[in-house]
Amino acid sequence: MENTIVILRLKHLKFLLIASLSLNLFAAIFFAKKLYVKYNASIETIEKKSDTTTTYWLKRNQLFEVLPKDKNTIVFLGNSLTQHFELAELFKNLNIRNRGINGDVIPAVIKRLSPITESCPKKIFIEIGINDLGRGAPKDTVIKNYEKLLERLQTECGSTRLFVQSIFPVANKSKTMAEYCSPKLNADIKFINQHLKEYSSLHDITFLDFHDSFVTDGELNPKFSVDGVHLTGEAYLLWTELLKPYVND
Questions:
Q1: Cα 202–chain centre separation
Q2: Residue 190: other Cβ atoms inside 10 A
Q3: Model pTM score
Q4: Which runs of E-coded beta strand occur in 65-216?
Q5: What is the pLDDT of residue 12?
Q6: Cα separation of 105 and 13, whole Å?
Q7: In whole angstroms, what is the distance from residue 107 CA to residue 85 CA?
Q8: CA separation (Å) from 45 to 10, 51, 54, 172?
Q9: In this structure, are strands 96-100 and 74-78 parallel, antiparallel, or unpaired?
Q10: What pLDDT was estimated at residue 208?
C-alpha cells in the first residue's frame, strides 16, 4: 500500500515538474516574441518618423558635425541600410566614414551635407530614396530632390568622385513594413534608377546598378531581408563584393 502511495506521489511530482517546465518554456517564448516585436516596432517607428527634428536625427547629425574632417577619406552617405553597413570592418579600411542615419530622406541628407563638403573626401557613395517613396513622395519629387543633392555635391566638391548606388528593391508585401512594400513601389524604384543612370552618365557621376543582384521574381530576394526592406548579413556580404572594385580603385 505504501509503495503504491509513493509511486502515485512520484507520478504526481513528475506531472507537476513537466507542467512547470512547459509553462516556463511557453512564457519564455511569449516574452521573446513580444520583445522581438517591440524591437522591430521601434526600428519601424524610426524609419517612418525620423526627420531633421527628431532627437535621434539631431544627435547623430551633431556627432557628424564634431567628428574630425579629412579629405583623404571615403564617405558612405545614406539611410538605415548604410548605417547598418559595417564598412570599415568589411572593407578592412579605416579611412571609410559611415554617414548613414536611420530613416533618412533626401531633403534631410541635403541639410546635413556641410560636415562632408567642408573636407570634400576622395569619394562619396550615396544610397538614399527608399524612405522618401515609403512615406508617399511621388517619384518625380524623389528625382528632383536627388538631382538637387547631386548638384550641390558637385558644386561644392568638384574634385570628389561621386558614386550613386541604385535604390534597393523591396518585397512586394510585408507585415511590418507594409507601406514600403508593394509592386507599385518596386516599379517606382526601377523608374527612378533608370533616370539616375541617365542623369549620372550626363554629369560625370558613376552609377552603380546593383538592383538586379538583389532581385528575384521582380522583388527583393527573401533571403536578403527579414522584413522586406532591411538587409540580412548575407546581403551585406554581397553588397560588399559588388562595391569592392570601386572602393579599392
A1: 28
A2: 18
A3: 0.80
A4: 74-78, 96-100, 123-127, 161-165, 206-208, 215-216
A5: 58
A6: 60
A7: 22
A8: 52, 11, 11, 20
A9: parallel
A10: 99
